[in-house]
Prior knowledge:
- The protein has one domain (3-249): Ribonuclease Z/Hydroxyacylglutathione hydrolase-like (Metallo-beta-lactamase, Chain A, 4-Layer Sandwich).
- 35% of the residues lie in helices and 26% in strands.
- It is built from nine helices and 14 strands.
- It has a six-stranded mixed sheet with strand order 1-2-3-4-5-6, with helices on one face. Strands 7-8-9-10-13-14 form a six-stranded mixed sheet. The chain has a two-stranded antiparallel ribbon with strand order 11-12.
- Strand 7 and strand 8 (101-107) form a beta hairpin.
Amino acid sequence: xxxxxxxxxxxxxxxxxxxxxxxxxxxxxxxxxxxxxxxxxxxxxxxxxxxxxxxxxxxxxxxxxxxxxxxxxxxxxxxxxxxxxxxxxxxxxxxxxxxxxxxxxxxxxxxxxxxxxxxxxxxxxxxxxxxxxxxxxxxxxxxxxxxxxxxxxxxxxxxxxxxxxxxxxxxxxxxxxxxxxxxxxxxxxxxxxxxxxxxxxxxxxxxxxxxxxxxxxxxxxxxxxxxxxxxxxxxxxxxxxxxxxxxxxx
Length: 250
């Protein structure tokens, strides 16, 4: 049985660890210390590291983990990394033998130009592209590129679990409410997220179904959103671009 657990890091990062009781794979280890602690506590051998993009809070622990565990490291082909790694690209399938899982690489550029996600075992590890109730800032790409990436994600099976890299959900949902205040699914999600965070638990993983129902960046065709922006005749990419600009200031 596979187990996917969050390893909190920094103020709001999640490093995801997939394990089967013996072997482990980690996604975006920005800090090696909490990863090593979990590996030791659980008696796990780290065999693989998956990287979604090059930002320091996602790769800062890689060199130390390589030195200690000698894992295979997979990282986006379109980005540059100083540590040894195997380059991966869109539609490539990785088979992680130790865990007996296959993961498809998805090109989801926008936050960074070469950002990738990993999809398989009914799970999506999407780094900083899609968040609970939101999406990543567009640092290197264009709004059209990010919109296209999010549409690609939105077309995954609705039961797919979404494992993103930050605990931004509550703030994202407050922004969502500011543009779609009458969405009953959103109102309920805000209530549930508040209870979850008050208990000290992560709001992640989410699901594609939940994001489609409550995430404004996947709901650019919503009549209420377009009306709240006074953009009733705009196309979805124009609405997305406006939403992202608004969220930057929220």
